[in-house]
Design goal:
2 copies of one chain form a homodimer. By secondary structure, chain A is mainly alpha-helical. Chain A binds a DNA duplex through helix 3.
DNA sequence: GTCTATAATACGATAGAC
DNA sequence: GTCTATCGTATTATAGAC
């Protein structure tokens, strides 16, 4: 039975407030109040407000990565695997709208220290990169420069989740679901 | 002969600092100091720090739109027109790296009021939308839902500019230049 | 671990002279 | 329009009891 600690409550509350009001628009006092803890408690668990932000960022990225790994399927058919990966990734975003919104908002901002951004971003991009390289070696994907293709794929994922989070009912519509994958797949396939 | 007013200096300084340190990480005192004006002068030209931010956001978006309009070419060949548009758009970003970085950072953040974001975003998306619709009617572009295609195209533009701004020398390489367009064009073309 | 103060300070914005 | 000086406030973080 999972016990919800005060530390977890602080993290969840901070997530919601940072997404809604921004990092600097959210005081530590408000986070503490909304999480029903004292400010002293907040600073007991996190050395500083920045530290809280960083832990949040890292934990969300890990959550996403774990989810992808747990749902991995390898059929041998590259396109089918890509489609499964694409749907799994967007599905996670739909089930974790706050986390996805948080990432959209802060992965490019100056609030997160550059070294942390770089580290988490690299793990995502490497994952995409491995997939693309495999496809290129099979002769199924375009031979554009890898780094450019990685950025493009990631950008398309971000764009699709932006759209579906703004229009959640469309994610239930097979036409839209397939269209989002097709836009992605056509761009990289030969 | 263009006279550089103090107001302009404040805007330019604020742009550089907001990109480098973020909005809340940049005090009005620092903007004033770096622009060689007094804080009183800053608040004479801008009602508040927020107002300064908003004017900056709007003026940058207008600058981009004007540039696109001034470089418009219609050859009758849709793909060729698309390529010209694509190159012109990225070229602007390469010539205005601070403005492009500013837009990447703040168009999704909570710092800019939602109504301003919506207004400027709509003008961009409508522009893309008109183009896609024309192509669909000609039977040259995929018939995916328009809103999804708009978001996808915009996302690919943002991804490409992120890549080329991080690797400016690659924009001079015809292979990379063409690859970025091809990734975009293949995703939407039939 | 958790709480209630409160210290220390940085910041946006104004007043008023020139 | 521009400046200097300053006010009021909001905010992070700490101290110390429980």
């Amino acid at each position: 039975m999972p016990k919800i600690t005060k530390k977890q409550r602080i993290l969840e509350t901070a997530l919601a407030l940072f997404v809604k009001q921004g990092f600097y628009g959210t005081s530590t006092a408000l986070i503490a109040k909304q999480a029903d803890v004292a400010t002293g408690t907040l600073f007991h668990h996190f050395q500083s407000k920045d530290e809280l932000m960083n832990q949040l960022f890292i934990s969300i990225k890990q959550d996403f990565a774990t989810n992808i790994l747990n749902n991995k399927q390898e059929s041998g058919d590259l396109k089918q695997d890509a489609q499964h990966l694409w749907n799994t990734s967007i599905q996670w975003a739909m089930e974790n709208p706050l986390k996805q919104a948080f990432f959209q908002q802060y992965s490019l901002s100056t609030v997160i220290p550059a070294n942390i951004k770089k580290h988490t971003m690299n793990s995502t991009l490497q994952f995409i990169g491995d997939f693309i390289q495999a496809g290129q070696e099979m002769g199924l994907l375009s031979n554009h420069p890898l780094a450019l293709m990685q950025e493009s794929c990631h950008g398309q994922y971000l764009a699709s989740t932006r759209y579906f989070l703004d229009n959640p009912e469309k994610w239930q519509d097979p036409t839209y679901k397939l269209a989002s994958f097709t836009l992605f797949w056509q761009s990289i396939s030969l």
